[in-house]
Amino acid sequence: MSSGDRNRIIIAGAGPVGLVAALLLGRRGIPFTLIEGEDALSDDLRASTFHPPTLDLLDAQGLAAPLIAMGLISPTWQIRVHETGERAVFDLAAIAGDTRHPYRLQCEQSKLCRLLLAQVLAEKRGEVRMGTRLEQVTQDDDGVSVRILADGEPGTIEGRYLIGADGSRSAVRHSLGFSFEGKTYPETTILATTTFPFQDHLPGLSNVNYVWKAKGTFSLLRLPQLWRCSLYPDPDESIEDGLQPASVQRKLQEIVPRDEPYEVLEIRAYRIHMRIVDDYRAGRVLLAGDAAHVNSPSGGMGMNGGIHDAVELVETLADIWNGADERLLDRYTRRRRPVAEAEILGQSDRNRARMQERDIAKRREMLADLQRVADDPERARDHLLRSSMIAGLRQAATIA
Question: Which end of the chain is more exposed for a tag (fewer CB within 10 A), N or C?
Fold first, then answer.
């Protein structure tokens, strides 16, 4: 099987980043072929926080309203001390003049992917090939050739450019040997989901909560039908023991003691990494999202940053498609990489370090400072512009 027409852009990966790129390319009249190794979209519970500027960008494509209808509007988020209930609460009303959506939306990324794919297929402006695995990438001065495997049959697809939006284990990145330097954090997160209504038992809880507890930390993120609980093995507990249902039950009972066991829908472990490529571009191949950068989920910036990558990249490719100099592609790295390094990786790294702090005196000092920020309208707005990713997008837009 061969597809030799190069008058297209190839997209690898049908996650939110690749699907946003496909929708935007199609709406700009640019032919594309999107390939995805899996036969169907994943329903795995991955990212679940949409920040205000991401909702603004989706709103421009008519997708914010249906997504909001499936999610949970979260006007505040907080950092709290479990034993005392002390907390610093950040109210996104402080940035109401900076966005049409002054709140976080708690909604599974799989719901956005299904909305996007349905729209892409309905508009019929490009090609989507599910169950098509990317094997190798080669390129020359005129285009890109992708070797694929579909239904056990090898083939090739050719295009003018390739967008690698195929996640943290990106085959595109591996095929072209992009560096991906960084670190892996020592702790393992144990994600447990439950239908238990924490909001009825913990006074003043927001929908997004980062919590210090004695000798540890956890987070509680609410979705329309469940809560996501990020837990950690105890200091003397192995990862394998921490994943046992009895261990998860014990940790949940420590959050809200109750006479009966929690209904736990899912338990899974994951390691957290902080890595970024040196350059988002190698010739006619461009990386976006987790293929280019991965970070701690603390702050919910990874998926959002990937969507922002896709929007910037499509705008750049559209200019080149319509006659601009190809060197403009270097602007994509200039705009997106510094933002990813400082505003996504940097902020999420600091968020993680704060919640991993075990010294009680330092925690009290951090909480007091956060409360002062939250209570000062000007400082709260500045903080929320950064944590909501608006400041980074504004900064990027000024880079030539």
Answer: C
